[in-house]
Batch of 2 targets.
Target 1
Amino acid sequence: MDPHYQHLYDILAHSQGYIFPNEIELQWGILIVVYPFITGLVAGAFILASLERVFKVRILQPTYQIALLTALSFLLVATMPLISHLSQPQRAYEIMITPHSSSAMAIFGFVYLWYLMVVLLLEIWFDYRHSMVVWANEKKGIMKWVYRILTLGVSDISPRTVRWDRKMGYIITVVGIPSAFILHGYVGFIFGSIKANPWWSTPLMPIIFLFSAMVSGIALVMIVYMVITYFRKKVIDLDVLDSIGKYLFFVLILDFTLEGLDQIHRIYVAEESFEIIKLLVSGKLYLTLFIAQGLVGTIIPLITLVFLQFYKHKIRVRKTMYFIVSILVLIGVYSMRWNVVIGGQLFSKSFSGFTSFKVGLIGLDGTLMAAFWLILPIGILAFLLWLLPPWRMVKEEEEI
Amino acid sequence: MKFYVPPQIPRLALAFAIFITLFLVLRHFLVPDTFGKYGHYRAASLIDNAQPEIHYAGQQACFKCHQDIEDKKAQDVHSEIHCETCHGPGEKHVVSSKVEDILKPSGREFCGSCHIINAGKQKSAINQIDLNKHNVGKNCIECHNPHQPWEMKK
């Protein structure tokens, strides 16, 4: 048989029931799972940072810069899964230079650019400006010039100027909160607006994505904070963990409730797509939805966090529990992205059959590529922490 | 009192101005030449898309030689099924006229890929056969002419 359609027959052997011809192959693979996951981490980490800045949760101070730098390092990579998925990296920039108002993805480019340039970079710049001027004066050789370039040549650190840094930083954070909401709400919108797909098409989608983003971002910052403190051989501040844990708990409850409402609504309304969705969640998505997302990613962390609110275990145990809970939550949110992206393509829009999905290992759309885009931000974060160490920042006197 | 402008703000504004100018300059050079000629896309992409090798010829090309099959097909339930649905891509065969360049499927499994009993399909739309019960051991085309399925062979 001609090899160029031989593989279609191979995949066809794995489909069940009746499907339309264009549903045999999944168009959105594992990299489209990674993309909303990374974007969610960015939005979540930023929202945690803004808690400290805008809502004056002073206890979270040690995580403020860590959260911002985490958000930046993941944001720098956020578009990469999309570009490698499209397999046309040499043309990827065209979406930015020839945007059209009718293209949701092109508008996303601008939401992304706004968030990167106007929110994150500016906030970090204003936050670090004072310290970078001081570092530029302290260091010798090439690092002196690196910091000098980073300050854009402004070396004024008079109290009045530094006060402006703080003021501007505050304003940007206030603008940044809705921006972070828009950034990730937009990712949800891209799925929620596909009205032909009953698994995606719900106005709740942006909100569900947003809350799961906050859950994953908060969990990630908790892990990053613990790992950094461990490598610096300092003591992990349990009050910080408790308070991040508290926010994680609240947001996780909200997330769980919203997703629960979405499912209850689906079950009660029981539209014509309900039968196939019932088969989908009890069959192909059983492991990733009920076990990974529901049990491992939501129920177990929730119960653990409830326990941690009421019972005061030994410090060591509490730290370990927070660490494990964060990892479980990340697994849960990743599974949620999987269930949405892959799940939505597994069933036929004829509502009478399923196709199947096998993840490839190599290639621009394979597992290794996805793993690479998930590991790269960690390297970028390590570099940023080396370049801009939060623990060496110049302490400023508190505002009166 | 003189209005105070913190020194970092004009510098930042300058950096943004440079960035935006750079973007506009780059954009000038990066937008593909033929972009916007017909619409909001690169006109040359039409030529790109015309390049791939052609695999399917379309049934009109088949009927130029196989008019007898066209007549047979027109009389029965497979009239709407195009030749290449079963015979595979035919462009090569159209050019060469060689038998080995076209697929001649046979076997119960092949017919079953459409006609196997399947709860997901409407019975009124397509005849469904339980391959485990219907004349086991015989090939479908021993009785049915695939081009005219209800014209049973003796």
Target 2
Amino acid sequence: MKLVLLWSDILFFLLIAATVAGAVVASRTEHLRQCWRRVGQSRVGMGAAAVLAVFFLIGAVDSLHFRPQLPDSPQGEPRYSAEVLSALDVLLTPLRTRTEKTYSAPLATHLYAKETLDDAGRDFPPLQYPGTHLFGTDKVGQDVLYLTLKSIRTGLLIGTLTTLIMLPAAVFLGLLAGYAGGWIDDVIQYLYTTLNSIPGVLLIAAAVLMMQVAIDNHPEWFATSAERADARLLALCAILGITSWTGLCRLLRGETLKLRELEYVQAARALGVSGTRILWRHILPNVMHIVMIAIVMDFSGLVLAEAVLSYVGIGVDPNTISFGTMINTARMELAREPMVWWSLAAAFAFMFVLVLAANLFADAMRDAFDPRMVDR
Amino acid sequence: MSLLAVRDLSVAIGAASPVEGVSFDIAAGETFALLGESGCGKSMTALALMRLLPDAARIAGGSVQFAGNDLCALSEAQMRGVRGGKIGMIFQEPGSSLNPVMTIGAQIAEALNVHADSVDGNRVVELLAAVGIPDPQRRATEYPFQMSGGMKQRAMIAMTLAGEPELLIADEPTTALDVTIQAQVLDLLDGLRRQRRMAILLISHDLGVVAQMADRIGVMYAGQLVEVAPRAAFFATPGHPYARRLFAALPNAASRQYRLATIPGSVPPLGTLHAGCRFAERCGEVLPICRVQVPPWREHAPGHAVRCHLDALLSQKVGAGETASASLPTGSGTPLLEVADLRVHFPIRRGVLQRAVGHVLAVDGVSLRLDAGRTLALVGESGCGKTTVGKAILGLQAPTAGMVKLHGALMHGLAPAAMQMVFQDPFGSLNPRLRVEEIIAEGSPTARVDELLQQVGLSADMANRYSHEFSGGQRQRIAIARALAVKPILLICDEPTSALDVSVQAQILNLLTDLQAQLGLAYLFITHNIAVVDYLAQEVAVMYLGRIVERGTVDEVLRGARHPYTQALLAAVPKIEGGNEYLRVAGDPPSPANPPAGCHFHPRCPRAVARCREAYPEAEALSATHAACCFLAGAK
């Protein structure tokens, strides 16, 4: 067995480490601890947090990648499979390996399509593993539950990494434009107005296709197809991040324009507090609720954007299992007679639960952290 | 036979009762004033009469008889006919009561349409004329943004008159307006009442406005009426300890040498459970019985009833507090602050290229001088540039021209910590995300937060809380502590008490006096409140349209004003003692973007002569300290 460390794995674990570090810092400060205690008192918030934790746990387990040793490799000189597996794959071995021939309905005992059988003419052939596929199987007989669980990591990555890429730019430029004003404001406004006036899909398509060409021309960059798919996923996050900071930036600029005229900012200036410190202590904390709402709303929007882009063929790598690719294939399945509805239903249900939990948790957090909301 | 009879009216929000057992009558053609501090349930009472309570609130009991109908028993559809028809209502903020995308005429016509079968176009113009809007024909076609605040309030009154109301509810109708405009609007309301025999329910926190307008007065405290009296009786012998203390808390020249009497604490928050008298906790004459038994109504004279257990104290006024121990240094040597010919012009940019097509002359040549340890009040109406002067002195606003000297040293850019500012809005001046200790230590990380908190009259254990947990007065104390942390010698106070209730204002004024005595601070006190000036300041400068029109000591300016604008400003302030000599100015202040030629005040000045239209008058020295910019200042 040989560990494989994909770039997205590193980023994902860094993200989790940062969250944990933040939690440790928060637990040492008395008033932050009080805020978190208020989150803990919200029943809805804690329910949502539990659901989110399960999703992140699945994502984390799915981010531990390795290449298994081939059984027939010679002693002392191990050879490894070209297929990259994750810890989740190992845990889900029964789901992963119990494949059928083709479509079967949830918990069915027979296939979904009639076949010519040897003895009894055309009939529904029995399944190899009857009654074990909770969400049925897809066209090539893979368990849909397995696919959905594997999609979670892609969804989380696209939702979080993209936000992380665009957040610093959006916050920094937004606050700078609003606070500094003058020509700095003009330049930043010009930048995002220009970027906004180019159709987003066009820009993304161009960038993805260029990257596609680069990847195809340099097969030596990647040892395995998983690494190639991973590079494409990261590039997609980066491109989505670069095109999606404008909205938040515009919002933050407006809010900063308002805040900088407030009397507590004026008072800080009169006390001789420096510009950076005013931005850090007075403006940033007071726009954080906007940032938080934007993160959650973008999160769901990005998961959906991934589905749209995959449909146009410029989304994630076709080998990557994601909600987008699942929904994309479901398009054909819904048009089929009789209709195959379960892969869409499974992807929909998981995506819905994920996005809803994120929204509810963000609400609970905002209520707990906004000092003005505490009394109500 | 009274027009409106309210009996035992109670409003409930959940378990809390913002209005409880309120009873009063208003006869046709009478003005009844509800007086009280914010949070006492005045507006809630008015909304209950109109059955316009917010969703969470409901009428819990009592009856409202209006012209023989029980308003509480009417259906919503019938109630709509009463609102705007028989009962009209005007609100505090005229700017937000009018629809910005409809012309004034269309909005009045709409109100007419609801209450009349056919609308005569002339009726709109008649109504506008009735509320004293000049050139009503043209004004009817204008939009709200083209009108000043006073004009908008007049237009609102015209809309209310469209339904020919028998009762007009005026909820703080002039609080958002300047004193000269306030005087005009109050005159208008009083005139309309007399002409139309309309009853007025006036809601106000301003004793002066009430003294000028009301026939009878009801004092509200924490949701209850505590005193009902005719005006003369109320102002001669207020009966309830709360009312007496409100009077004592008012600053004026007579209380100059003394600390103002304050009411400790603040109005109890909504939802407090009261066993006895609601004022018991803050009352200086509290008896054991007050805490356990709700006081009954006692009638002291016909029509003068007080809800208090005490009787003997009725005629005894609350004396002012002990003498303030401030012995002020007299001006000598280098002034602490010297401002010469300060100008702040804002360019007006138009067009694609954003070229400056003109300038708003917010501050146009202001010179000031303030000695250490003294207080200079900068007085003027909104828009006259007084806040901009404060910001420019501090360096928060870059001046276009002029110089500011502190201790004889020329200032460039942001002022040193020796000058600090206290702002008007106690809710906007503290960052809601920071705790009190972080706020106070903002300018100086080594500040002794607990000492500062005690210095401004707060307790040291409040340091760990967020600012939203404090009342307006407490927040203003925190803001003062923040300024004191860097050990300033000059505080620029920009209307620090105008957002506060009278009793809280007295606390802050006392605090400012104490700090001046202890630390030798100098104050540049920016305000529109003449009474506060009279109480606090030694010197006064009056500003009009970006320039100082008169300056001198308090006695010289407030009691011997020579500039017609100062005289008009002083006359417009409603006085409790009554007897306002009417030097009323007409019209609104002109725009600082386009000031009138000659003396800026001449279009409104009742004494303007030909010379006033030609040149701006130079300051004429009337004594060593007193000067006025008026050609007529020298002539008696």
